[in-house]
Amino acid sequence: MLTGDALAIAKETCKMLALGTKVYNSDKLIHGGLSGAMAGDLVEKADGFAEVFPEHKYQVVQMLQERGHLTAMTGDGVNDAPSLKKADCGIAVEGASEAAQSAADIVFLEPGLSTIIDSIKMARQIFQRMKAYIQYRIALCLHLEIYLVTSMIIINESIRVELVVFLALFADLATVAVAYDNASSVDG
């Protein structure tokens, strides 16, 4: 979490959101005298930074990306635009400035953090369904290929096209169930 609020407020907010309590003042980032690797380690292990300025936000996003992390950044002001653009997923919140909205990948039209949390849960459900669909299609293709090859070897003649089409269409009916399954929003 990166915030312009005071350190005590940032720690309390992190605690309330169950993000951890390893929150540091932004002075550790630029004026802390840490080398690149040590600063990167600090950013990776920290739960948040308080009293940050726009350059701190950009720096944290850049450090995390250099270490192979995917980053998301929320913001609402003109000063957040560079970080929103730099992040893998920039999120402008309701009431954000035009600069923040144009720099962001996603613009939420409803207020509050719950919108972001609900969106993440929904995205995880969608990806879980996509994964289930792909697994099902691979298994189905292998099943059809094994069936066709085995039947051609045993019967010693080719299978009629109508039968192959019927098998493919009948198998697609089961695919409809994947769209309405009870996908959870937590990786399992």
From TrEMBL:
Chief location of this protein within or outside the cell: membrane
UniProt-listed InterPro entries: ATPase_P-typ_TM_dom_sf (IPR023298), HAD-like_sf (IPR036412), HAD_sf (IPR023214), P_typ_ATPase (IPR001757)
GO cellular component terms, semicolon-separated: membrane
Location relative to the cell: Membrane
Gene3D superfamilies tied to this protein: Calcium-transporting ATPase, transmembrane domain, HAD superfamily/HAD-like
Transmembrane segments: 134-155, 161-180
GO MF annotations in UniProt: ATP binding; ATP hydrolysis activity; metal ion binding
Annotated GO biological process: monoatomic cation transport
Keyword vocabulary terms for this entry: ATP-binding, Magnesium, Membrane, Metal-binding, Nucleotide-binding, Phosphoprotein, Transmembrane, Transmembrane helix
UniProt keyword Cytoplasm present: no
Membrane topology: Multi-pass membrane protein
Top-level taxon of the source organism: Eukaryota
Pfam families xref list: Hydrolase
Family matches, as PANTHER family: CALCIUM-TRANSPORTING ATPASE
NCBIfam families, alphabetized: ATPase_P-type
Family affiliation: Belongs to the cation transport ATPase (P-type) (TC 3.A.3) family. Type IIIA subfamily.
Protein name stated in the entry: Plasma membrane proton P-type ATPase (Eurofung)
